[in-house]
Amino acid sequence: MDKVATIDETQQVLAVYLGTEMFGIPIMHVQGVLETLPLTFVPLAPAAVRGVMNLRGRIVTAIDLRTTLSPNDKMLIGGPQANMSIVIEEDGELYSLLVDSVGDVHTLPVAHIEEPPLTMDETLKKVSSGVFALRDKIMVILKPAALLGNAEEE
Q1: What's the number of CA atoms in the CB half-sphere (13 Å) around residue 89?
Q2: 125: domain CATH number?
Q3: How does residue 110 score in pLDDT terms, banded at 50, 70 and 90?
């Protein structure tokens, strides 16, 4: 099932930050990056659903990535800021992942993306496809479909 990566295969990911933690979202899922728009509260929604927003006439569900990745607030440093929205599309629906800030697009050699470590938090392990060591940080690469499934479970 797993294919062996050739030496020249790459994956592009958008770096996003929650506090000082760095995550990567595969660029092929990213539809846009924007400042967080006004949100409308959704009663009885899971805790990670911060609300919905109107994006050019489409209703977009806003997912608080901090709540999704750290439901008990045990992992991530700092309180909710969520200044930026990463708009992704999954199964024809638009979602906005709320993050503190956005970094650069990184082109990562697939052969150097490692499996999530055994010591990684189980919640984070469930939604990540691997980790990549940058010069001064470790980037956890996220799986958007798993993130959305995790947000709905709460």
Answers
A1: 7
A2: 2.40.50.180
A3: very high
